[in-house]
Design brief:
Elements (H helix, E strand, L loop, with lengths): L2 H4 L5 H5 L2 H10 L1 H20 L7 H21 L5 E3 L16 H10 L22 H8 L3 E5 L2 H13 L3 E5 L5 E2 L3 E2 H8 L2 E5 L7 H7 L4 E7 L15 H10 L3 E7 L17 H6 L4 E5 L10 E5 L1 H8 L2 H6 L3 H15 L3 H4 L1 H7 L2 H15 L5 E10 L11 E10 L4 H10 L3 E3 L1 E3 L2 E5 L8 H12 L2
């Protein structure tokens, strides 16, 4: 690089003294701003080395500052910030799955400082984390004991390693699932040091298949609910209760991973045919696993319910500490269980409210939103029928009728419109169908309708 070109590269000291950079330093602190600024200077150096012409050193400074501001804006945009979920996927994994009830949000704030986490108020002595939710789970599901970890995949690894390491666990071929992020059940078995023994076929597995596969090396039978896909047609599989009876008759344990975490049969969820903790425990399963942030309507958590002796073994395993739930999610879980206990889930849980919304109410909301937004430059709004889904690895194959607002642009692509909505603060996430951006109202909290209107107008413009 020639000396003339080097003279066009501004110094770090000069850039740090500029007002724009000083304001960024006050907000973000020196370390990350210096790192991003160094990256912008290096980017300028590469531009100059590749023959890009700059008029003056002042032009170079302005370009570096523009790149820096863009990078720092990206840091803000990538925070776990509020998003209006208009995708039509009610439990969108990328957008945080179940939206929490107001009571759960307040509980998080209350527990954000010092809180009652691992001590007993009455005795003042140390207690195990999660003792606060034991009575709720016992009363609502009939379990003897519970253990709460940070997610259901972690619960599965803990259970397998603590109770079955070095031995075989039987599972139907139809249940060898892959969950989000390409995590596959066989890999979880391998990580836990457990031998996976497949039984039956992809579409049909009978009780006799399990019985024939039992050997002296068998530790347990595992049933995994296929919550993120469906096999239909010529199918068969034993119930959890039938598997539990076989396992106990042969001196084995039986575990039931129900996945989506429904506590007990609920009329709002009846049409989906999802398993629940109470039914599985009543049927004889030794341990039942499920997620907290799906049909339970709570925070991320891996819930393990069942026999006290097995739970005690899990609780004292080294992995239990590695996987334990944090205080904020525990507080939110406690508040959510209290809602279920007093029978007000249909009124207080956002997921249940979304599922109960009828088409006429969704149409009325859509008409109001379109009227409030009014006319936009080069964009038309149209109310259209839509199909939503529960999502989050729950209720696969069960479409939910819905209503959406379709945004059609005459001057730009649907991808650009969708990006503009996503990049705004607050952001709107929709989906693209037939060259239009669809904003599905079933997944939008009706309390956010006014904010939705304002954001559409601000992000797309008049």
């Amino acid at each position: 690089m020639s000396d003339d070109i080097r003279q066009l590269i501004p110094s770090m000291t000069r850039l740090l003294a500029r007002p724009e950079v000083r304001s960024l330093l006050a907000w973000f602190g020196p370390d990350i701003v210096r790192m991003k600024l160094q990256g912008a200077i290096e980017r300028l150096r590469q531009h100059l080395a590749n023959g890009v012409l700059m008029g003056s050193k002042s032009d170079s400074e302005q370009l570096v500052i523009r790149w820096l501001v863009s990078e720092m804006d990206r840091c803000l945009l990538n925070t776990p910030r509020k998003v209006i979920n208009a995708t039509g996927v009610l439990l969108h994994t990328g957008l945080g799955r179940a939206p929490l009830a107001d009571a759960a949000r307040k509980a998080i704030l209350d527990a954000a400082g010092a809180c009652l986490l691992e001590v007993n108020s009455e005795s003042g002595e140390r207690a195990y984390r999660g003792f606060q939710v034991h009575d709720f789970f016992e009363a609502l599901t009939g379990c003897e004991d519970c253990l709460i970890v940070n997610n259901n995949a972690g619960a599965t690894v803990l259970l397998l390693q603590a109770l079955c390491q070095g031995r075989e666990v039987l599972i139907s071929r139809s249940q060898l699932v892959e969950i989000g992020g390409s995590f596959r059940l066989p890999e979880i078995f391998q990580t836990a040091g457990v031998v996976l023994r497949e039984v039956g076929t992809t579409n049909r597995t009978h009780l006799r298949d399990y019985a024939a596969a039992i050997t002296e090396r068998t530790a347990a039978i595992l049933r995994v609910h296929a919550s993120n896909f469906r096999i239909v047609g010529f199918t068969a599989e034993p119930s959890s209760g039938e598997l539990a009876a076989l396992a106990h008759a042969r001196g084995l344990m039986m575990f039931d991973d129900i996945g989506s975490g429904q506590l007990f049969a609920n009329p709002v969820l009846a049409s989906f045919g999802e398993p629940d903790f109470r039914t599985s425990i009543t049927g004889g399963a030794d341990l039942v696993l499920g997620s907290g942030d799906k049909l339970l309507g709570g925070p991320q958590a891996g819930i393990i319910l069942g026999r006290s002796s097995l739970i005690q073994t899990l609780r004292h395993h080294p992995l239990a500490r590695c996987l334990r739930i944090d205080k904020l999610n525990l507080a939110a879980l406690h508040a959510t269980l209290l809602i279920h206990a007093r029978g007000t889930a249909t009124d207080e849980l956002p997921l249940y409210q979304m599922l109960q919304a009828d088409i006429s109410a969704l149409n009325q909301r859509a008409e109001s939103i379109v009227a409030q937004v009014g006319s936009l430059r080069d964009v038309t709004l149209q109310i259209v029928p839509s199909i939503a889904e529960v999502g989050g690895g729950s209720c696969a194959g069960h479409p939910v009728p819905s209503v959406a607002i379709a945004l059609h642009s005459s001057s730009t692509s649907a991808q650009t419109v969708a990006r503009n909505l996503r990049m705004h603060v607050p952001a709107i996430w929709g989906r693209i169908e037939a060259a239009a951006v669809l904003l599905d109202l079933r997944s939008v909290d009706r309390c956010d309708d006014q904010l939705l209107c304002q954001t559409i107008k601000a992000a797309i413009g008049r």
